[in-house]
Amino acid sequence: ELSLGSRGGHPAGPPHPAGGGGSAKSSATVSRNLNRFSTFVKSGGEAFVLGEASGFVKDGDKLCVVLGPRGPEWQENPYPFQCSIEDPTKQTKFKGMKSYIAYKLVPSHTGQQVHRRYKHFDWLYGRLAEKFPVISVPHLPEKQATGRFEEDFISKRRKGLAWWMDHMCSHPVLAQCDAFQHFLTCPSTDEKAWKQGKRKAEKDEMVGANFFLTISVPTGPGASLDLQEVESQVDGFKAFTKKMDESALQLNHTANEFARKQVTGFKKEYQKVGHSFKCLSQAFELDQQAFSAGLNQAIAFTAEAYDAIGDLFADQPRQDLDPVMDLLALYQGHLANFPDIIHVQKGALTKVKESKRHVEEGKMELQKAEGIQERCNIISFATLAEINHFHKIRVRDFKSQMQHFLQQQILFFQKVTQKLEEALHKYDSV
Protein backbone atom coordinates (compact mmCIF):
# COMPACT_ATOMS: atom_id res chain seq x y z
CA GLU A 1 0.00 0.00 0.00
CA LEU A 2 1.16 3.51 -0.56
CA SER A 3 1.83 6.25 1.92
CA LEU A 4 0.71 9.77 1.26
CA GLY A 5 3.08 12.62 1.96
CA SER A 6 0.31 15.00 2.95
CA ARG A 7 -3.48 14.81 3.04
CA GLY A 8 -4.60 14.76 -0.56
CA GLY A 9 -1.17 16.02 -1.58
CA HIS A 10 1.55 14.26 -3.48
CA PRO A 11 2.12 10.65 -2.53
CA ALA A 12 5.54 9.59 -1.38
CA GLY A 13 7.24 8.64 -4.62
CA PRO A 14 10.81 8.66 -5.89
CA PRO A 15 12.61 11.84 -4.80
CA HIS A 16 12.58 14.35 -7.60
CA PRO A 17 15.21 17.08 -7.77
CA ALA A 18 13.73 20.41 -8.77
CA GLY A 19 14.93 22.06 -11.96
CA GLY A 20 18.32 23.75 -11.64
CA GLY A 21 19.47 21.47 -8.76
CA GLY A 22 23.03 20.36 -7.90
CA SER A 23 24.31 18.29 -10.79
CA ALA A 24 24.06 18.92 -14.51
CA LYS A 25 21.92 15.82 -14.83
CA SER A 26 19.20 17.06 -12.51
CA SER A 27 18.84 20.38 -14.31
CA ALA A 28 17.38 18.38 -17.18
CA THR A 29 14.27 17.29 -15.35
CA VAL A 30 11.04 18.83 -16.55
CA SER A 31 10.56 22.03 -14.62
CA ARG A 32 8.03 22.11 -11.82
CA ASN A 33 5.24 24.58 -11.64
CA LEU A 34 6.30 27.00 -8.94
CA ASN A 35 2.78 28.21 -8.36
CA ARG A 36 1.64 25.88 -5.56
CA PHE A 37 -1.91 27.09 -6.00
CA SER A 38 -2.20 26.12 -9.64
CA THR A 39 -4.96 23.57 -10.26
CA PHE A 40 -2.48 21.40 -12.11
CA VAL A 41 -0.38 21.12 -8.94
CA LYS A 42 -3.26 20.95 -6.44
CA SER A 43 -5.10 18.27 -8.39
CA GLY A 44 -2.03 16.04 -8.33
CA GLY A 45 -1.90 16.18 -12.13
CA GLU A 46 1.69 17.45 -12.12
CA ALA A 47 2.99 14.80 -9.71
CA PHE A 48 1.28 12.10 -11.78
CA VAL A 49 2.62 13.30 -15.14
CA LEU A 50 6.14 13.51 -13.70
CA GLY A 51 5.85 9.89 -12.60
CA GLU A 52 5.74 10.53 -8.86
CA ALA A 53 2.49 8.80 -8.05
CA SER A 54 3.04 5.34 -6.69
CA GLY A 55 0.33 3.24 -5.20
CA PHE A 56 -1.41 -0.07 -5.26
CA VAL A 57 -4.60 0.07 -7.32
CA LYS A 58 -7.22 -2.41 -6.17
CA ASP A 59 -9.57 -3.90 -8.78
CA GLY A 60 -12.51 -2.04 -7.26
CA ASP A 61 -10.77 1.28 -7.83
CA LYS A 62 -10.16 0.81 -11.55
CA LEU A 63 -11.87 3.23 -13.93
CA CYS A 64 -11.99 2.41 -17.61
CA VAL A 65 -12.04 4.76 -20.56
CA VAL A 66 -13.15 3.02 -23.76
CA LEU A 67 -13.29 4.16 -27.36
CA GLY A 68 -16.86 4.82 -28.40
CA PRO A 69 -18.30 6.06 -31.71
CA ARG A 70 -17.57 9.66 -30.67
CA GLY A 71 -14.13 9.04 -29.22
CA PRO A 72 -13.13 8.32 -25.60
CA GLU A 73 -15.99 7.57 -23.20
CA TRP A 74 -16.25 6.40 -19.60
CA GLN A 75 -17.18 2.74 -19.54
CA GLU A 76 -20.89 2.53 -18.85
CA ASN A 77 -22.22 1.53 -15.46
CA PRO A 78 -23.31 -2.13 -15.94
CA TYR A 79 -25.95 -1.71 -13.22
CA PRO A 80 -27.63 1.66 -13.85
CA PHE A 81 -29.99 2.98 -11.17
CA GLN A 82 -31.89 6.12 -10.18
CA CYS A 83 -32.65 7.67 -6.84
CA SER A 84 -35.68 9.75 -5.95
CA ILE A 85 -35.64 12.54 -3.37
CA GLU A 86 -38.98 12.99 -1.65
CA ASP A 87 -40.82 14.32 1.38
CA PRO A 88 -38.50 16.86 2.95
CA THR A 89 -39.49 16.63 6.64
CA LYS A 90 -38.58 18.80 9.57
CA GLN A 91 -36.82 16.78 12.27
CA THR A 92 -35.38 17.69 15.65
CA LYS A 93 -32.59 16.56 17.91
CA PHE A 94 -31.29 17.48 21.38
CA LYS A 95 -34.88 17.15 22.67
CA GLY A 96 -36.20 19.66 20.15
CA MET A 97 -33.46 22.26 20.65
CA LYS A 98 -32.20 21.92 17.08
CA SER A 99 -34.33 21.39 14.00
CA TYR A 100 -33.29 20.50 10.47
CA ILE A 101 -34.75 19.25 7.21
CA ALA A 102 -34.19 15.61 6.23
CA TYR A 103 -34.82 14.33 2.70
CA LYS A 104 -36.07 10.84 1.94
CA LEU A 105 -33.88 9.09 -0.64
CA VAL A 106 -35.02 5.92 -2.37
CA PRO A 107 -32.35 4.37 -4.64
CA SER A 108 -33.88 2.05 -7.24
CA HIS A 109 -31.11 -0.56 -6.93
CA THR A 110 -31.79 -1.22 -3.23
CA GLY A 111 -35.37 0.01 -2.82
CA GLN A 112 -34.43 0.87 0.78
CA GLN A 113 -35.20 4.41 1.88
CA VAL A 114 -32.65 6.46 3.81
CA HIS A 115 -32.88 9.99 5.23
CA ARG A 116 -30.12 12.52 4.60
CA ARG A 117 -29.63 16.11 5.67
CA TYR A 118 -28.15 18.84 3.50
CA LYS A 119 -24.91 18.62 5.51
CA HIS A 120 -24.55 14.98 4.39
CA PHE A 121 -24.90 16.04 0.75
CA ASP A 122 -22.36 18.76 1.44
CA TRP A 123 -19.86 16.30 2.95
CA LEU A 124 -20.23 13.97 -0.04
CA TYR A 125 -19.78 16.81 -2.54
CA GLY A 126 -16.53 17.87 -0.80
CA ARG A 127 -15.13 14.32 -0.88
CA LEU A 128 -15.92 13.79 -4.56
CA ALA A 129 -14.70 17.20 -5.71
CA GLU A 130 -11.35 16.40 -4.05
CA LYS A 131 -11.16 12.83 -5.33
CA PHE A 132 -11.97 13.40 -9.02
CA PRO A 133 -9.85 16.20 -10.53
CA VAL A 134 -11.03 15.64 -14.11
CA ILE A 135 -14.70 14.89 -13.45
CA SER A 136 -17.31 17.61 -13.14
CA VAL A 137 -19.03 16.90 -9.81
CA PRO A 138 -22.37 18.75 -9.99
CA HIS A 139 -22.68 21.67 -7.56
CA LEU A 140 -25.28 21.45 -4.82
CA PRO A 141 -28.11 23.98 -4.69
CA GLU A 142 -27.14 26.83 -2.37
CA LYS A 143 -27.30 26.43 1.36
CA GLN A 144 -29.54 29.11 2.78
CA ALA A 145 -28.98 30.03 6.39
CA THR A 146 -31.90 32.38 7.01
CA GLY A 147 -35.52 31.32 6.75
CA ARG A 148 -34.45 27.77 6.02
CA PHE A 149 -37.87 26.28 6.57
CA GLU A 150 -39.96 28.40 4.24
CA GLU A 151 -42.10 26.12 2.08
CA ASP A 152 -40.95 27.67 -1.20
CA PHE A 153 -37.28 27.43 -0.34
CA ILE A 154 -37.57 23.80 0.76
CA SER A 155 -39.44 22.79 -2.38
CA LYS A 156 -36.99 24.68 -4.59
CA ARG A 157 -34.03 23.04 -2.87
CA ARG A 158 -35.62 19.60 -3.23
CA LYS A 159 -35.92 20.19 -6.98
CA GLY A 160 -32.29 21.31 -7.12
CA LEU A 161 -31.19 18.21 -5.19
CA ALA A 162 -33.27 16.01 -7.52
CA TRP A 163 -31.37 17.39 -10.54
CA TRP A 164 -28.10 16.94 -8.65
CA MET A 165 -28.97 13.34 -7.83
CA ASP A 166 -29.93 12.63 -11.43
CA HIS A 167 -26.53 13.84 -12.63
CA MET A 168 -24.74 11.78 -9.99
CA CYS A 169 -26.61 8.59 -10.93
CA SER A 170 -26.11 9.25 -14.66
CA HIS A 171 -22.32 9.54 -14.36
CA PRO A 172 -20.64 6.14 -14.88
CA VAL A 173 -17.80 6.98 -12.47
CA LEU A 174 -19.55 9.00 -9.77
CA ALA A 175 -22.51 6.58 -9.57
CA GLN A 176 -20.23 3.64 -8.74
CA CYS A 177 -17.92 5.45 -6.35
CA ASP A 178 -17.77 3.99 -2.80
CA ALA A 179 -18.49 7.25 -0.97
CA PHE A 180 -21.63 7.85 -3.05
CA GLN A 181 -22.84 4.26 -2.56
CA HIS A 182 -22.27 4.60 1.20
CA PHE A 183 -24.31 7.82 1.15
CA LEU A 184 -27.17 6.07 -0.70
CA THR A 185 -27.25 2.78 1.20
CA CYS A 186 -26.08 3.23 4.81
CA PRO A 187 -29.16 2.97 7.08
CA SER A 188 -30.06 6.36 8.57
CA THR A 189 -30.39 4.84 12.03
CA ASP A 190 -26.94 3.21 12.08
CA GLU A 191 -24.75 6.08 13.26
CA LYS A 192 -21.75 3.77 13.76
CA ALA A 193 -21.83 2.37 10.21
CA TRP A 194 -22.26 5.90 8.84
CA LYS A 195 -19.15 7.11 10.69
CA GLN A 196 -17.10 4.08 9.60
CA GLY A 197 -17.99 4.61 5.94
CA LYS A 198 -17.29 8.33 6.30
CA ARG A 199 -13.84 7.66 7.80
CA LYS A 200 -13.08 5.13 5.09
CA ALA A 201 -13.94 7.69 2.39
CA GLU A 202 -11.85 10.35 4.11
CA LYS A 203 -8.87 7.98 4.25
CA ASP A 204 -9.20 7.06 0.58
CA GLU A 205 -5.69 7.10 -0.87
CA MET A 206 -6.75 7.13 -4.50
CA VAL A 207 -7.16 10.90 -4.55
CA GLY A 208 -5.08 13.63 -6.18
CA ALA A 209 -2.13 12.22 -8.12
CA ASN A 210 -3.14 8.65 -7.28
CA PHE A 211 -6.57 9.11 -8.78
CA PHE A 212 -4.92 9.12 -12.21
CA LEU A 213 -3.30 5.74 -11.44
CA THR A 214 -6.77 4.19 -11.30
CA ILE A 215 -7.60 5.11 -14.91
CA SER A 216 -7.05 2.47 -17.55
CA VAL A 217 -7.19 3.56 -21.17
CA PRO A 218 -7.41 1.77 -24.51
CA THR A 219 -4.08 0.30 -25.67
CA GLY A 220 -2.81 -1.19 -28.89
CA PRO A 221 -2.68 0.19 -32.44
CA GLY A 222 -4.85 3.22 -33.10
CA ALA A 223 -5.44 3.79 -29.40
CA SER A 224 -2.94 6.56 -28.74
CA LEU A 225 -4.23 10.10 -29.06
CA ASP A 226 -2.74 12.70 -31.35
CA LEU A 227 -1.63 15.54 -29.07
CA GLN A 228 -2.48 18.30 -31.51
CA GLU A 229 -5.88 16.80 -32.11
CA VAL A 230 -6.51 16.62 -28.33
CA GLU A 231 -5.39 20.22 -27.94
CA SER A 232 -7.75 21.48 -30.63
CA GLN A 233 -10.67 19.44 -29.20
CA VAL A 234 -10.07 20.82 -25.72
CA ASP A 235 -9.72 24.38 -27.07
CA GLY A 236 -12.97 23.93 -28.98
CA PHE A 237 -14.70 22.75 -25.81
CA LYS A 238 -13.27 25.68 -23.86
CA ALA A 239 -14.78 28.12 -26.39
CA PHE A 240 -18.06 26.18 -26.25
CA THR A 241 -18.30 26.37 -22.43
CA LYS A 242 -17.57 30.09 -22.45
CA LYS A 243 -20.35 30.71 -24.97
CA MET A 244 -22.76 28.36 -23.21
CA ASP A 245 -22.07 30.07 -19.88
CA GLU A 246 -22.83 33.50 -21.37
CA SER A 247 -26.03 32.34 -23.03
CA ALA A 248 -27.19 30.41 -19.93
CA LEU A 249 -26.67 33.56 -17.88
CA GLN A 250 -28.64 35.62 -20.37
CA LEU A 251 -31.48 33.10 -20.63
CA ASN A 252 -31.65 32.89 -16.84
CA HIS A 253 -31.89 36.67 -16.60
CA THR A 254 -34.56 36.85 -19.32
CA ALA A 255 -36.62 34.02 -17.81
CA ASN A 256 -36.38 35.63 -14.38
CA GLU A 257 -37.57 38.96 -15.74
CA PHE A 258 -40.37 37.33 -17.72
CA ALA A 259 -41.52 35.34 -14.68
CA ARG A 260 -41.48 38.51 -12.56
CA LYS A 261 -43.59 40.35 -15.14
CA GLN A 262 -46.11 37.51 -15.26
CA VAL A 263 -46.46 37.27 -11.51
CA THR A 264 -46.89 41.00 -11.00
CA GLY A 265 -47.33 43.00 -14.24
CA PHE A 266 -49.41 40.71 -16.47
CA LYS A 267 -51.64 39.63 -13.62
CA LYS A 268 -52.32 43.27 -12.70
CA GLU A 269 -52.95 44.32 -16.33
CA TYR A 270 -55.43 41.52 -17.03
CA GLN A 271 -57.21 42.17 -13.77
CA LYS A 272 -57.41 45.89 -14.64
CA VAL A 273 -59.16 44.93 -17.88
CA GLY A 274 -61.45 42.63 -15.88
CA HIS A 275 -62.21 45.42 -13.43
CA SER A 276 -63.08 47.82 -16.26
CA PHE A 277 -65.50 45.30 -17.80
CA LYS A 278 -67.03 44.83 -14.35
CA CYS A 279 -67.58 48.60 -14.01
CA LEU A 280 -69.27 48.59 -17.43
CA SER A 281 -71.61 45.77 -16.43
CA GLN A 282 -72.43 47.58 -13.18
CA ALA A 283 -73.28 50.72 -15.16
CA PHE A 284 -75.51 48.69 -17.50
CA GLU A 285 -77.32 47.18 -14.53
CA LEU A 286 -78.74 50.63 -13.76
CA ASP A 287 -80.92 50.05 -16.81
CA GLN A 288 -83.71 47.89 -15.38
CA GLN A 289 -84.96 46.63 -18.79
CA ALA A 290 -85.49 42.86 -18.74
CA PHE A 291 -83.95 42.33 -22.20
CA SER A 292 -80.57 43.78 -21.13
CA ALA A 293 -80.09 41.39 -18.17
CA GLY A 294 -78.41 38.72 -20.37
CA LEU A 295 -75.88 41.22 -21.70
CA ASN A 296 -75.04 42.47 -18.21
CA GLN A 297 -74.40 38.92 -17.02
CA ALA A 298 -72.27 38.13 -20.08
CA ILE A 299 -70.10 41.22 -19.53
CA ALA A 300 -69.80 40.44 -15.81
CA PHE A 301 -68.70 36.90 -16.81
CA THR A 302 -66.14 38.36 -19.23
CA ALA A 303 -64.79 40.46 -16.35
CA GLU A 304 -64.37 37.31 -14.24
CA ALA A 305 -62.67 35.52 -17.14
CA TYR A 306 -60.03 38.27 -17.38
CA ASP A 307 -59.59 38.18 -13.62
CA ALA A 308 -59.01 34.40 -13.81
CA ILE A 309 -56.60 34.80 -16.76
CA GLY A 310 -54.58 37.22 -14.61
CA ASP A 311 -54.25 34.47 -11.96
CA LEU A 312 -53.27 31.93 -14.61
CA PHE A 313 -50.41 34.22 -15.68
CA ALA A 314 -49.21 34.57 -12.10
CA ASP A 315 -49.19 30.78 -11.54
CA GLN A 316 -47.62 29.90 -14.85
CA PRO A 317 -43.86 30.48 -14.24
CA ARG A 318 -43.90 27.70 -11.65
CA GLN A 319 -44.93 25.26 -14.40
CA ASP A 320 -42.60 26.26 -17.22
CA LEU A 321 -39.97 28.94 -16.49
CA ASP A 322 -38.89 27.79 -13.02
CA PRO A 323 -37.90 24.28 -14.18
CA VAL A 324 -35.80 25.82 -16.99
CA MET A 325 -34.05 28.07 -14.44
CA ASP A 326 -33.41 25.07 -12.13
CA LEU A 327 -31.71 23.28 -15.02
CA LEU A 328 -29.65 26.35 -15.92
CA ALA A 329 -28.48 26.64 -12.30
CA LEU A 330 -27.21 23.05 -12.38
CA TYR A 331 -25.39 23.60 -15.68
CA GLN A 332 -23.84 26.84 -14.49
CA GLY A 333 -22.25 24.72 -11.75
CA HIS A 334 -20.82 22.29 -14.34
CA LEU A 335 -19.55 25.16 -16.48
CA ALA A 336 -17.77 26.62 -13.45
CA ASN A 337 -15.96 23.26 -12.99
CA PHE A 338 -14.55 22.97 -16.48
CA PRO A 339 -11.83 25.67 -16.41
CA ASP A 340 -10.01 23.65 -13.70
CA ILE A 341 -10.48 20.36 -15.56
CA ILE A 342 -9.13 21.95 -18.77
CA HIS A 343 -6.25 23.48 -16.80
CA VAL A 344 -5.11 20.02 -15.60
CA GLN A 345 -5.15 18.75 -19.17
CA LYS A 346 -3.30 21.82 -20.50
CA GLY A 347 -0.65 21.44 -17.76
CA ALA A 348 -0.05 17.85 -18.85
CA LEU A 349 0.33 18.88 -22.51
CA THR A 350 2.83 21.58 -21.53
CA LYS A 351 4.95 18.97 -19.71
CA VAL A 352 4.99 16.77 -22.83
CA LYS A 353 6.14 19.69 -25.00
CA GLU A 354 8.88 20.55 -22.48
CA SER A 355 10.09 16.95 -22.32
CA LYS A 356 10.28 16.70 -26.13
CA ARG A 357 12.39 19.82 -26.18
CA HIS A 358 14.67 18.42 -23.47
CA VAL A 359 15.18 15.19 -25.44
CA GLU A 360 16.14 17.18 -28.54
CA GLU A 361 18.63 19.19 -26.47
CA GLY A 362 20.05 15.96 -25.07
CA LYS A 363 19.04 16.85 -21.53
CA MET A 364 16.59 13.99 -20.99
CA GLU A 365 16.47 10.30 -21.81
CA LEU A 366 13.87 9.35 -24.39
CA GLN A 367 12.42 6.71 -22.06
CA LYS A 368 11.58 9.32 -19.44
CA ALA A 369 9.94 11.59 -22.02
CA GLU A 370 7.90 8.65 -23.30
CA GLY A 371 6.68 7.99 -19.75
CA ILE A 372 5.55 11.61 -19.48
CA GLN A 373 3.72 11.36 -22.80
CA GLU A 374 2.05 8.11 -21.78
CA ARG A 375 0.78 9.60 -18.53
CA CYS A 376 -0.41 12.74 -20.31
CA ASN A 377 -2.27 10.40 -22.66
CA ILE A 378 -4.18 9.00 -19.66
CA ILE A 379 -5.22 12.50 -18.54
CA SER A 380 -6.27 13.33 -22.13
CA PHE A 381 -8.39 10.18 -22.41
CA ALA A 382 -10.13 10.97 -19.11
CA THR A 383 -10.71 14.63 -20.04
CA LEU A 384 -12.17 13.76 -23.44
CA ALA A 385 -14.37 11.08 -21.84
CA GLU A 386 -15.69 13.70 -19.40
CA ILE A 387 -16.34 16.20 -22.22
CA ASN A 388 -18.20 13.49 -24.14
CA HIS A 389 -20.32 12.63 -21.11
CA PHE A 390 -21.18 16.30 -20.57
CA HIS A 391 -22.47 16.69 -24.14
CA LYS A 392 -24.49 13.47 -23.96
CA ILE A 393 -26.24 14.48 -20.72
CA ARG A 394 -26.70 18.08 -21.92
CA VAL A 395 -28.56 16.97 -25.05
CA ARG A 396 -30.74 14.63 -22.97
CA ASP A 397 -31.57 17.31 -20.35
CA PHE A 398 -32.21 20.25 -22.64
CA LYS A 399 -34.34 18.15 -24.99
CA SER A 400 -36.65 17.01 -22.18
CA GLN A 401 -36.73 20.43 -20.52
CA MET A 402 -37.57 22.28 -23.74
CA GLN A 403 -40.31 19.73 -24.49
CA HIS A 404 -41.71 20.24 -20.99
CA PHE A 405 -41.53 24.02 -21.36
CA LEU A 406 -43.41 24.07 -24.68
CA GLN A 407 -46.01 21.53 -23.52
CA GLN A 408 -46.71 23.69 -20.47
CA GLN A 409 -46.91 26.83 -22.61
CA ILE A 410 -49.42 25.14 -24.92
CA LEU A 411 -51.52 23.96 -21.94
CA PHE A 412 -51.43 27.49 -20.56
CA PHE A 413 -52.68 29.11 -23.76
CA GLN A 414 -55.32 26.38 -24.09
CA LYS A 415 -56.59 27.33 -20.61
CA VAL A 416 -56.63 31.01 -21.59
CA THR A 417 -58.48 30.21 -24.85
CA GLN A 418 -60.98 28.09 -22.94
CA LYS A 419 -61.76 31.01 -20.58
CA LEU A 420 -62.27 33.35 -23.54
CA GLU A 421 -64.47 30.81 -25.38
CA GLU A 422 -66.64 30.36 -22.26
CA ALA A 423 -67.06 34.13 -22.08
CA LEU A 424 -67.90 34.34 -25.79
CA HIS A 425 -70.66 31.70 -25.47
CA LYS A 426 -72.38 33.78 -22.78
CA TYR A 427 -73.36 36.25 -25.54
CA ASP A 428 -75.10 33.57 -27.64
CA SER A 429 -78.35 33.84 -25.70
CA VAL A 430 -78.40 37.63 -25.31
TrEMBL record:
Keyword terms: Cytoplasmic vesicle, Membrane, Protein transport, SH3 domain, Transport
Gene Ontology MF terms in the entry: phosphatidylinositol binding
Pfam families assigned to the protein according to its UniProt record, in alphabetical order: BAR_3_WASP_bdg, PX
Keyword Transmembrane: no
Biased composition (Gly residues): 1-11
Coiled-coil spans in chain: none
Protein name: SNX18 protein
Chain segments carrying region Disordered: 1-28
Domain PX: 81-191
Keyword Metal-binding part of the UniProt annotation: no
Main location: membrane
Gene: Snx18
Organism in which the protein naturally occurs: Thinocorus orbignyianus
